[in-house]
């Protein structure tokens, strides 16, 4: 899903929301030009995506506020707690990124403050692009902050492949630049922060898989927070069956199991219906073994070819000679990220990166 293609999401910035912002701004700044703001913000609103609407709010405020950046930041500081949506609050850091480029110290302080109301992850990136060393130094300080929102921004803001934003080519080329931030956060107590660290590392696996593997092989997994980050950071490599990644999570060995009763029901569906996957794994080993179980669907493309998509199923320890039933229900429906086409869709069971069996289901026109 993308921000531009989701009509429900962009309605976060509808006319009623613009009026709410105007009313709250008027409450903290009595001289605020409410009619001028609303006229500017509502121009061609229906044609704008959610991120374009977010930027429009920022630009509309700038159009009617006095030319005093310091005073405007103070007004926006007062506005932030009065807004009724975290996502909507993201126009505040956007304002800083758009109009605070010449006031680095004050802009950094504003982004740190605003991120607790609506993430500053997009707004920090122009500063990284224009002055990478100076901005990374600030993020390293933020990685030690007591506030989880600020710590999360330290990792999320410098993700090389952050969705909905431009890539940070310098960090994409050299992940060592942001490594001190990730090291600082590798056992963070906040799940919110850990998800960001894992996603950051997963981004790096797209360009430097060996760098990530070498670093994570040096991390102790005795701490549960670190172990959680490592599992999720390696998800793309594990789906690819990467042996080093599987070994890090304790599933590097070839699986000693037998696959039983693999089936998908119903065998024929129409778009929008559900398939039910079921099977069992039986151990043939004399000792327990760690298993990472995934399944892949070969989706039919418009050209008639196929494209595989791997789904996580279960990671568990199977005792010696034990049997484990497994299953999953999945709706087959249109997504903004995937179109479905009629035809035979193969489904494969993957255990520790090895394909153990296959079946198929048919999507009717």
From TrEMBL:
A family per Pfam: DNA_alkylation
Q: What is this protein called?
A: DNA alkylation repair protein
Per the UniProt entry, what species is this protein from, by scientific name? Pseudomonas chlororaphis
Lineage here is:
Bacteria, Pseudomonadati, Pseudomonadota, Gammaproteobacteria, Pseudomonadales
């Amino acid at each position: 899903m993308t921000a531009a293609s989701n009509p429900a999401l962009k309605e976060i910035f509808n006319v009623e929301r613009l009026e709410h912002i105007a009313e709250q701004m008027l409450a903290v700044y009595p001289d605020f030009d409410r009619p001028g703001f609303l006229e500017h913000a509502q121009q061609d609103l229906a044609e704008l995506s959610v991120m374009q609407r977010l930027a429009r709010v920022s630009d509309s405020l700038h159009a009617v506020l006095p030319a005093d950046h310091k005073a405007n930041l103070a007004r926006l500081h007062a506005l932030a707690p009065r807004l009724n949506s975290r996502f909507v609050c993201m126009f505040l850091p956007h304002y800083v990124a758009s109009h605070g480029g010449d006031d680095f110290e004050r802009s950094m302080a504003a982004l740190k403050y605003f991120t607790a109301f609506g993430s500053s992850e997009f707004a920090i990136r122009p500063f990284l692009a224009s002055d990478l060393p100076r901005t990374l130094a600030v993020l390293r300080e933020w990685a030690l902050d007591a506030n989880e929102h600020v710590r999360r921004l330290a990792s999320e803001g410098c993700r090389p492949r952050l969705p909905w934003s431009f890539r940070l080519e310098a960090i994409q080329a050299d992940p060592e630049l942001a490594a001190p931030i990730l090291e600082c956060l590798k056992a963070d107590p906040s799940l919110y922060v850990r998800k960001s660290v894992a996603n950051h590392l997963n981004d790096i696996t797209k360009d430097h898989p060996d760098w990530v593997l070498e670093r994570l092989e040096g991390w102790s997994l005795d701490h549960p927070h670190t172990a959680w980050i490592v599992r999720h950071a390696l998800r793309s490599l594990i789906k690819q069956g990467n042996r080093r990644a599987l070994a890090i999570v304790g599933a590097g060995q070839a699986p000693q199991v037998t696959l039983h009763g693999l089936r998908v029901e119903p065998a024929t569906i129409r778009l929008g219906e559900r398939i039910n996957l079921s099977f069992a794994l039986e151990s043939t080993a004399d000792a327990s073994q760690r298993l990472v179980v995934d399944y892949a669907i070969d989706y039919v493309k418009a050209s008639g070819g196929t494209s595989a998509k791997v789904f996580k199923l279960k990671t568990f320890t199977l005792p010696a000679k034990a049997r484990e039933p497994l299953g999953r229900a999945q709706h087959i429906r249109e997504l903004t990220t995937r179109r479905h086409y009629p035809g035979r869709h193969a489904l494969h069971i993957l255990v520790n990166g090895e394909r153990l069996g296959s079946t198929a289901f048919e999507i009717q026109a």
